[in-house]
């Protein structure tokens, strides 16, 4: 069902700046609009998700989205918001990254409907461009004085930080991207984060001066956490969309652990749930915040969209291991990284592999080798009461031997004492 694009953005808190006349244009015709993605890595991260959702809302409102992969501009790197020049990438790296990003975008955008999305790479029009053409037909329309007043250039110079000609030239390249898409694909709108406003307005200015065209810009706020910290960053770095870089479990956990205030903000931005449903969820959450229903809905919705239903179920099953609901099978399915993440902070004991090879009586293992119990009498009593599990299996035989057959990932043994006390034995060769 089509809807008013700008109104949708407003209630979701996704509208920052827009150029006059855009509202009328969107109501008058099907508009083609684009957002650029620099392929500086072989995966997008959740910092890119707001822009992806912006394109998705744009398409659902009946308009035509273009995702521009900056194969050429990515070789320079956008200096916006950066204190130093980015590392330059090779053509081979750019091409590889582009293919990876394309697969991720296809999970969100429809490339086969009436207002189908399109994917373009600006390297196509820069590859054989004559530099004389660029400086004569692009550079002459945007003066140095005009460019020096752009936010990121002004900020870098005011701070006494160096700005290379390559970086300075980036704004001209992005402006020309807009002009090229305007002339060749009828693209009248460029969108992006609020840090892109200077680049976007430069493109509209170039179109106005060079061909007397009417072009428009729109930005959304940069997403931050309620405490002011950077969104999408953890102690381990970016939260990536690629499951090889950030596992579905870690991805799910990121959303599950956001604050209540952030959950109210994020569920509007990162899901397609309608306003009535979100308002209802927020009210339910306020009446019983300890259930974290808002975070659970957010984490489920976005994990399924980025990964799959299967990955969500696996992440949910993994999350429940700590609370006694997991099984041996769910434990064995974990990657080593996820296992260490789940049991981060629980007591760990190292044990020589040779000791396990010889086999250790269960009671000795629990008392002498891991110090989980202070005495053999207490260990026997707990086993008899069904209070000891190894790798999520109840130990009901005090004569059981602990050997290499019990190793998870060939190096871990998980001991559970009672309902909530876990111990991770790390077996080293």
Quick description:
It is built from 20 helices and 15 strands.
Keywords:
429 residues, alpha/beta, six-stranded mixed β-sheet, five-stranded mixed β-sheet, 45% helix
Structure description:
- This protein is an alpha/beta fold.
- The chain contains 20 helices and 15 strands.
- The protein has a six-stranded mixed sheet, sandwiched between helices.
- Strand 11 (388-390) and strand 12 (393-394) form a beta hairpin.
- Helix 9 (165-185) packs across helix 10 (197-211), helix 11 (248-256) packs across helix 15 (309-319) and helix 12 runs parallel beside helix 14.
- The longest helix is centred in the middle third of the chain and has 21 residues, at 165-185.
- The N and C termini lie far apart (60 Å).
- The model is unreliable at 81-86 (pLDDT under 50).
Total helices: the number is 20
Query: What is the terminal separation in angstroms?
Result: 60 Å
Strand content: 5-15%
Mean pLDDT: 89
Total number of strands:
15
Order of neighbouring strands in the sheet with most strands = 1-6-5-2-3-4
- Residue share in helices? 40-55%
Note the overall shape: elongated
Q: Which parts are unreliable, with pLDDT below 50 for 5 consecutive residues or more? A: 81-86
Category from helices, strands and their pairing:
alpha/beta
Radius of gyration: 27 Å
Major β-sheet profile: 6 strands, mixed
């Amino acid at each position: 069902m089509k809807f008013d694009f700008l109104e949708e953005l407003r209630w979701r808190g996704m509208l920052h700046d827009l150029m006059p006349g855009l509202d009328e244009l969107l109501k008058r015709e099907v508009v083609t609009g684009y957002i650029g993605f620099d392929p500086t890595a072989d995966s997008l991260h959740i910092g890119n998700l707001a822009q992806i959702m912006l394109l998705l809302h744009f398409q659902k409102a009946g308009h035509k989205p273009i995702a521009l992969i900056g194969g050429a501009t990515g070789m320079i790197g956008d200096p916006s918001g950066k204190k130093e020049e980015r590392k330059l990438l090779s053509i081979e790296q750019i091409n590889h990254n582009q293919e990876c990003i394309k697969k991720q975008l296809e999970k969100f955008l429809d490339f086969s409907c009436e207002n189908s999305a399109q994917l373009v790479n600006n390297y196509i029009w820069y590859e054989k461009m004559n530099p004389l053409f660029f400086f004569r037909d692009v550079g002459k329309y945007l003066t140095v004085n005009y460019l020096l007043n752009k936010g990121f250039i002004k900020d870098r110079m005011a701070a006494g930080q160096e700005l290379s000609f390559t970086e300075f030239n980036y704004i001209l390249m992005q402006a020309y991207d807009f002009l090229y898409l305007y002339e060749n694909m009828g693209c009248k709108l460029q969108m992006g984060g609020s840090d892109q406003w200077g680049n976007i307005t430069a493109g509209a200015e170039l179109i106005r001066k060079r061909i007397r065209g009417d072009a428009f810009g729109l930005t959304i706020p940069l997403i931050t956490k309620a405490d002011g910290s950077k969104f999408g960053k953890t102690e381990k770095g970016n939260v990536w969309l690629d499951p090889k870089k950030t596992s579905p479990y870690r991805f799910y956990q990121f959303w599950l652990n956001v604050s209540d205030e952030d959950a109210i903000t994020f569920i509007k931005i990162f899901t397609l749930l309608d306003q009535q449903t979100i308002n209802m969820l927020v009210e339910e959450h306020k009446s019983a915040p300890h259930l974290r229903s808002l975070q659970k809905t957010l984490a489920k919705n976005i994990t399924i969209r980025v990964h799959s239903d299967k990955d969500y179920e696996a992440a949910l099953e993994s999350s429940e291991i700590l609370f006694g609901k997991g099984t041996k099978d769910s434990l064995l399915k974990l990657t080593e990284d996820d296992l260490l993440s789940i049991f981060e902070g629980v007591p760990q004991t190292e044990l020589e592999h040779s000791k396990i090879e010889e086999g250790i009586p269960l009671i000795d293992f629990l008392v002498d080798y891991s110090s989980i119990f202070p005495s053999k009498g207490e260990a026997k009593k707990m086993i008899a009461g069904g209070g000891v599990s190894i790798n999520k299996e109840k130990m009901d035989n005090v004569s059981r031997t602990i050997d290499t057959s019990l190793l998870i990932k060939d190096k871990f043994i998980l001991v559970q004492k009672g309902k909530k006390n876990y111990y991770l034995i790390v077996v080293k060769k």
